[in-house]
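Re: [help] complex structure
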Amino acid sequence: MTSPLTAPEGVRRVACVGAGVIGGGWVAHFLARGYDVKAWDPAPDAEQKLRRLVDAAWPALTEMGLADGASRDRLTVVPTLEEAVADAEFVQESAPEDLDLKRDLLSRLDAAAPAGVVIASSTSGYPMTDMQTTAATPARLVVGHPFNPPYLIPLVEVVGGEQTDADATAWASRFYEVAGKSVITMDREVPGFIANRLQEALWREALHMIANGEATVKEIDDSITEGPGLRWAFMGPMLTFALAGGEGGMAHMLDHFGPSLKSPWTRLEAPELDKQLYDSVVAGCDVAADGRSIAELVAERDQGVIDVLRATGRLNKNGNGKADPR
Amino acid sequence: MTSPLTAPEGVRRVACVGAGVIGGGWVAHFLARGYDVKAWDPAPDAEQKLRRLVDAAWPALTEMGLADGASRDRLTVVPTLEEAVADAEFVQESAPEDLDLKRDLLSRLDAAAPAGVVIASSTSGYPMTDMQTTAATPARLVVGHPFNPPYLIPLVEVVGGEQTDADATAWASRFYEVAGKSVITMDREVPGFIANRLQEALWREALHMIANGEATVKEIDDSITEGPGLRWAFMGPMLTFALAGGEGGMAHMLDHFGPSLKSPWTRLEAPELDKQLYDSVVAGCDVAADGRSIAELVAERDQGVIDVLRATGRLNKNGNGKADPR
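Output below.
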């Protein structure tokens, strides 16, 4: 029987509530990792769409390597929310992005799920504090924010609300790691969490450019896949920028490009680059570099770009390092 | 002799003025593509640093495939700007990001370079209109903005200023393509061009988060490399987001996430998602999709993520699709 004490490593039964692109992606991920999955979605054609999504994802998941016993047969689509979570050891909610709807759904899940079972929401940006207000036992409600598709993109951002028990947050982070995800556990709530705030800033700037006729959708996409995107697949924007400072690293980069923070290069106003921020960024880069010298990071970046170009067919196909201008 | 009529395909001699991280990266790229390169930089230890940069890049360039006859021996570091460009068939300026300095340098390059030779600036964001004001023949001055490192990242953004001859802009775009770059030619000046506006928005949001203690440098980097960055290496943010709309594509995504543009997910205010912008984004995605169905794009994205995870050592190393939580 399920008990509040089921260890993250011992979980076998997962419930996925909401089976759209994200919820269905979670279903595919948990199935590939060998879990028994019960899914519920109110849409009339939900099961058909869900199984089509899982079937479409399965070849990729098979190539990545299925867990022992992983099978699409372990998916059960049930007619009610209550049946989905009745014997669940973990619940992932992936309903549409509507605060009232999520608030209501999380309350119903809390009422129906076994005591102690952690319930996570895939919300793209609502703070759990705002979603857990009507639940009877808000302590077990956490945010577990994935990226599309959840069955391939490792990142899950985990953060609790004001009423969330720290143990529930820690349990969720550990469970996701056991389930093969790469977890960032936030100690405070920020709308949009981390990655969505970053990609939302980029997305909004892109929409401004399209609205003003400054760039086309294709130019925006090409500018990323032929440019910064090649680096971001394996080295984040902070360390990447540090390498623009040459042998001087981030400190030299900030000395050189700090003034451009005043330039109208985006509609987003920059913070004041005072000594405290300057020092935080430089010190943070040292932590992120984790002992790697600038020269070592440059070699790592160079090899990474070559590997990514080759892996995505843009090196061998065109030769001479010329990218496929798609 | 050099003449205004040297075709982009016929260029053999390139001058690189400014030999820091970007200028030096250009030198490495042009050498790898088989050009004769003359470089000049006023710094006392410039040649030593430049040759060290080229030596560090050479293994990567060799792995990517050198052009016939490519050799580090084709690099000549000269003591004056005039000697660097005296017989150049193309000039790439990569001086520090200082408007007055670039204005003065471009004027001197224009005075010293053979008639008709196109002179490109690596500026990260200054409009050429502002840089060409003091040059005798501003018509041949264009922006050719690369990404770090120029010898590996394919993208070059090309745009002219108000006084730039359209033929010079077209010549530069064609030359960069011949030289193995992936070119986006802009028909209007926008500060920061395209990719820098996008990554600057992300960078500024990251700085705000660090300044507010909302995330560490490492969390910001990890949130990208374990999340959106894996997709951006081969599929841009627009098409990627279109896939969040499921079988409904971008139209459904905008219907679903449009409201979040009002959410405080980033400090960057979003434009009004009116019908015109909505239609532009949806139509632009159709163009970018270039006939690929949503199902085909999903399969392409999935394979791309797997290829990138494997290429960057995060699939085989950890198995079961678990990413290396770096």
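Chain B touches chain A through 136 residues (CB under 8 Å).
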